[in-house]
Backbone:
């Protein structure tokens, strides 16, 4: 028996979360695994739910058939194969997986703030698939995240859109086919006006909004020249030029060329109406589009201009007044922009808020009288459009990825909670499984505490030392403009 | 000299070295040679024979009882029936085991440290002062006329800055280590490492191979310099690799036909990356966490470079990729430990941390099972006694004994590209040997001899870890002993003892050689017993001391194997009896220990 327990525990060690062993691990453990993710279940039938499609309204007493990770059917009395996993969702709600257009959840570093233009850095390089917040977000019905660079500098790093396939290798998190993007930032965070400088440290340029515009114009002018240099070289090679030393590849300018060519989406952190207009004009001058304005708390003042440019807006529900450029914010911001024809989303920019984006969206029915469907779109289809993944996620429609969550009540109720979260048809959070696994974890803890390495040193060893108070990581990236705990990054 | 027939075929497999050995041996035997003269200037004795010992050659089957002959810094003969040459200094190896000299596969031994000025006291304190200090820190090593900032200078060579001597190198030798990979301490591109032997008078003599690998740390630069975050680290590495590719290409084009071409800038930082791109030199990337290991693998794949992982705490989670890419691991023996003596209930560790500690000693066996090549490294161990101790823990967790020996010797040599010189006991190889009483992994194992470049090194006691909570100590302290062996002049030696309850450890140093004591015990009434190898004339033998302690006096009898019996008596230096915690007085006028609460006020905690 003891052997069995230790086998059990060693398996638990191998599998950090039951939802996400790698394919190889699953093969190896075969019989030992009984959770619903077992390879046999390529089909799932969710029966008799209230289905919030977002694209086509809310359907009562409706089944959803999932096959090979895709939504294969939405309707009444759907049939599945004999081996299908069948879930009775009578009295429950199913909604599309929530898409968070502004997150820093699984990033081992947020800001490369040493330079004003850091387009060469990539969030993809620093993803941490084991961040516990990811699991908490799954428990809040979130399935897709836009992991962004911070706002320490005018042109930040390249973002990555991920699906929260918690427990899987990091490569499986990357949202397949999501267009590449980049973070820009304007305003107070970039000015770093409030930053205390150390002796001998010089203030990083720019220190004003004027400087921020200049940084952008300079960077895109350099990018144009860079593109021309390469075009000329390629032309010379094409004309039979030999012994030509190719130009230097510049990882800072390459993404900017992609922006100029319309191949890379710009997500721009901004607050004030004047800087928003500046950025839209600058983009028009250089011939590219801003995909989303992030935060954009004064968006309501220039909603028509934003709509005319075609930019999306990704904002907070009701956060305001937390710094000087947020004093003019109003909770009606999202609704005003929606009415002006802007694609609007509500984002978290916080590991904590990300778990309750459903409630953030619900607030928009109170502030500005958005309809239920309009409010639901703020956290599903609209952010999917902003990230260029609306063909894959954001609504419950046949052919889309089976990224959805089963809720115990309407997700706009504060009493509702997530029962099960699916991504590509696989379960990555299940409340019953989670509860069932807790005694097992406790057993493992007790076993581990008995392990040699976890015992306090024996007498005669190192003298007793007062334990350093354990600091729980707060990892609370509110508004992405406070320091992100990245040490010297912002300096 | 004679090469044992059984060894000939193996010697032939490294024929060039063996040829040199034979040649040198011939010259040594029949004619003076420049080599011999050079050696003679260093030491009159260059021939040793350890006889009657168990030999673990690693290259082949264990020899239960045999002889290893060392001549001119190299292994001259090894085998069961090898006679000791008449001119050899004989070491009686009865009861001893000879292993190839242990190799620490990654260290900073002999490397300079950066100068961190102390934060000015008074005025601005706290974090600001620390940051200011970091900014003013003098880097350990920097390359003149480099195109890159400190921390991104791959052209730095460990061989250019390594220094022999020092406590750390000595501690490594005392733990049985004979050679090590050493690399600069800091940076992203930290510099190129060297394999060094751990006993030499000059930096030049230390080097076995240089350069070995380019070492890389995913550590941001400080003080507001790009790259100042992990994000920037990868971008900076990627840009420099691309620049190096272009540098190689541009120079190739230019060299072919310089006329009409603008001359490419010379850049030694980029030039240093060219052998890496050409797969001639591996990258050693410091990575413990799974995701850092995966990042290193991704990087190596992106630029098609050879990779070695250093650290590797979570390498067992990545074995499939490591094995598929044939990436070896320099596995750290610095296992995480629970450091507080508080009850676990007082400050519960997360399960993740508990798992990490429990997994550390299991990693080696898991790598072996998955076919990932690995060698052990100290990984910044503070107490080198844990080096072999932690390997023993890996044995308890499923690592095969021969795999463990291999990971300490030949595997390290192979990964570091010195397998023709080090890692086994074979004729023609450098005579680095680690000799123990008891099995290498036994708890009561003792390192009795360490040979480096064919010369025995003095083994001094490892400074004891500060022991707390111990009671009265009868024996601890530094003793001066006078030893009278039958028919021999009186000899003097210094005996250092550390007592923990009834356990006793320590070492001798002086006219009878230097060695650590073993089988030591002290009773409550002061009866003391220990054994220690001693060197008289040309022979090393084991002596057993049995006696009594009375205050600061000690006296008793000595029995030896072969050289007869004798007596000893001695006194404790400084008269520091009974305390146990009082350090032996280092000067003639010892300062009294400060009274509690004065003199050593701890800094106020934050």
Residues:
């Amino acid at each position: 028996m003891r052997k069995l327990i230790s086998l059990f525990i060693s398996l638990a060690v191998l599998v950090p979360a039951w939802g996400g062993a790698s394919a190889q691990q699953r093969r190896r453990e075969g019989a030992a695994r009984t959770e619903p993710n077992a390879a046999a279940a390529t089909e799932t039938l969710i029966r008799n739910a209230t289905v919030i499609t977002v694209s086509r309204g809310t359907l009562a007493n409706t089944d959803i058939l999932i096959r090979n990770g895709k939504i294969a059917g939405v309707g009444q009395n759907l049939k599945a194969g004999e081996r299908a996993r069948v879930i009775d969702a009578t009295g429950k709600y199913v909604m599309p997986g929530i898409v968070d257009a502004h997150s820093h959840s699984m990033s081992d570093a947020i800001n490369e703030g040493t330079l004003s233009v850091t387009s060469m850095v990539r969030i993809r390089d620093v993803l941490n698939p084991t961040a516990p917040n990811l699991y908490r977000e799954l428990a809040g019905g979130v399935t897709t995240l836009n992991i962004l660079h911070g706002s320490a500098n005018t042109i930040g790093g390249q973002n990555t859109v991920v699906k929260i396939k918690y427990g899987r290798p990091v490569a499986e998190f990357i949202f397949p086919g999501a267009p590449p993007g980049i973070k820009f930032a304007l305003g107070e965070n970039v000015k770093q006006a409030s930053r205390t400088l150390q002796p001998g440290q010089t203030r990083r340029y720019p220190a004003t909004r004027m400087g921020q515009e200049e940084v952008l114009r300079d960077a895109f002018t350099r990018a144009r020249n860079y593109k021309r240099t390469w075009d000329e070289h390629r032309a010379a090679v094409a004309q039979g030029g030999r012994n030509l030393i190719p130009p230097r590849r510049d990882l800072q300018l390459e993404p900017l060329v992609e922006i100029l060519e319309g191949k890379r989406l710009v997500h721009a952190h901004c607050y004030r109406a004047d800087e928003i207009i500046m950025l839209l004009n600058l983009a028009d001058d250089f011939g590219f589009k801003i995909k989303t304005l992030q935060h954009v708390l004064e968006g309501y003042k220039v909603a028509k201009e934003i709509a005319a440019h075609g930019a999306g807006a990704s904002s907070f529900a009701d956060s305001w007044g937390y710094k000087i450029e947020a004093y003019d914010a109003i909770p009606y911001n999202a609704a005003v922009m929606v009415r002006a024809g802007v694609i609007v989303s509500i984002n978290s920019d916080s590991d904590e808020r990300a778990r309750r984006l459903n409630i953030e969206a619900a607030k928009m029915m109170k502030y500005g009288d958005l309809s239920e469907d309009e409010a639901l779109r703020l956290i599903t289809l609209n952010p999917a459009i902003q990230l260029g993944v609306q063909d894959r996620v954001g609504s419950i429609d046949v052919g889309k990825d089976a990224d959805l969550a089963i809720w115990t009540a309407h997700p706009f109720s504060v009493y509702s909670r997530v029962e099960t979260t699916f991504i590509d048809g696989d379960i990555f959070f299940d409340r019953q499984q989670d509860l069932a696994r807790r005694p097992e974890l406790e057993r493992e803890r007790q076993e581990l505490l008995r392990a040699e390495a976890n015992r306090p040193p024996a007498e005669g060893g190192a003298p007793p030392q007062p334990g350093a108070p354990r600091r729980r990581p707060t990892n609370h990236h509110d508004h992405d403009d406070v320091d992100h705990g990245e040490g010297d990054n912002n300096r | 000299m004679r090469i044992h027939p059984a060894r000939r075929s193996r010697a032939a497999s490294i024929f060039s070295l063996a040829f040199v050995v034979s040649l040198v041996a011939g010259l040594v035997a029949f004619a003076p040679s420049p080599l011999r003269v050079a050696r003679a200037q260093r030491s009159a004795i260059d021939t040793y024979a350890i006889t009657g010992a168990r030999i673990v050659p690693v290259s082949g089957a264990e020899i239960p009882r045999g002889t290893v002959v060392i001549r001119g810094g190299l292994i001259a003969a090894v085998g069961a029936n090898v006679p000791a040459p008449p001119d050899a200094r004989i070491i009686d190896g009865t009861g001893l085991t000879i292993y190839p000299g242990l190799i620490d596969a990654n260290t900073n031994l002999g490397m300079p440290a950066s100068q961190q000025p102390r934060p000015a006291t008074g005025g601005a304190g706290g974090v600001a002062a620390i940051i200011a200090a970091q900014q003013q820190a003098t880097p350990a090593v920097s390359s003149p006329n480099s195109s890159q900032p400190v921390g991104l200078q791959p052209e730095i060579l460990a061989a250019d800055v390594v220094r022999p001597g020092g406590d750390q190198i000595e501690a490594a030798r005392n733990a049985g280590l004979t050679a090590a990979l050493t690399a600069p301490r800091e940076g992203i591109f930290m510099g190129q490492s060297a394999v060094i032997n751990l006993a030499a008078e000059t930096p030049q003599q230390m080097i076995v191979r240089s350069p070995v690998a380019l070492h890389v740390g995913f550590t941001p630069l400080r003080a507001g310099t790009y790259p100042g975050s992990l994000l920037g680290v990868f971008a900076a590495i990627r840009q420099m690799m691309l620049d190096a590719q272009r540098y190689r290409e541009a120079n190739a084009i230019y060299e072919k036909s310089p006329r009409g071409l603008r001359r490419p800038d010379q850049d030694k930082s980029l030039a240093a990356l060219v052998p890496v791109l050409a797969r001639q030199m591996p990258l050693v990337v410091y990575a413990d966490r799974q995701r850092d290991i995966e990042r290193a693998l991704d990087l190596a794949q992106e630029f098609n470079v050879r990779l070695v992982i250093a650290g590797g705490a979570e390498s067992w989670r990545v074995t499939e990729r490591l094995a598929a890419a044939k990436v070896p691991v320099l596995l750290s023996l610095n296992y995480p430990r629970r450091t507080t003596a508080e009850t676990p209930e007082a400050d519960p560790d997360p399960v993740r941390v508990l798992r990490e500690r429990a997994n550390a000693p299991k990693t080696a066996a898991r790598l072996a099972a998955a076919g990932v090549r690995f060698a052990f490294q100290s990984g910044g161990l503070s107490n080198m006694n844990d080096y072999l101790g932690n390997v023993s823990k890996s044995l308890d967790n499923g690592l095969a004994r021969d795999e463990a020996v291999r990971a300490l010797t030949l595997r390290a040599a192979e990964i570091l590209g010195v397998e023709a010189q080090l890692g086994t006991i074979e004729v023609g190889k450098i005579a680095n040997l680690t000799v123990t009483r008891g099995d290498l992994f036994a708890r009561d194992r003792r390192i009795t001899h360490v040979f480096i470049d064919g010369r025995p090194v003095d083994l001094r006691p490892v400074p004891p870890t500060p022991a707390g909570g111990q009671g009265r100590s009868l024996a601890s302290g530094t003793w001066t002993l006078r030893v009278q062996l039958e028919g021999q002049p009186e000899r003097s030696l210094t005996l250092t003892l550390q007592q923990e309850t009834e356990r006793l450890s320590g070492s001798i140093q002086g006219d009878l050689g230097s060695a650590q004591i073993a089988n030591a015990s002290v009773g409550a009434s002061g009866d003391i017993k220990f054994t220690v190898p001693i060197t008289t004339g040309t022979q090393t033998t084991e002596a057993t001391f049995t006696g009594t302690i009375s205050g600061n006096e000690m006296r008793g009898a000595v029995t030896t194997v072969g050289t007869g019996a004798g007596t000893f008596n001695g006194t404790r230096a400084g008269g520091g009896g009974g305390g146990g915690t009082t350090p032996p007085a280092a000067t003639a006028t010892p300062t009294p220990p400060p009274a509690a609460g004065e003199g050593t006020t701890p800094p106020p905690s934050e």
Notes: Confidence is low (pLDDT under 50) at residues 1-41, 119-126, 464-472, 575-606 of chain B. Chain B touches chain A through 68 residues (CB under 8 Å). Residues 5-100+423-456 of chain B form a domain with the Urease, subunit C; domain 1 fold (CATH 2.30.40.10).
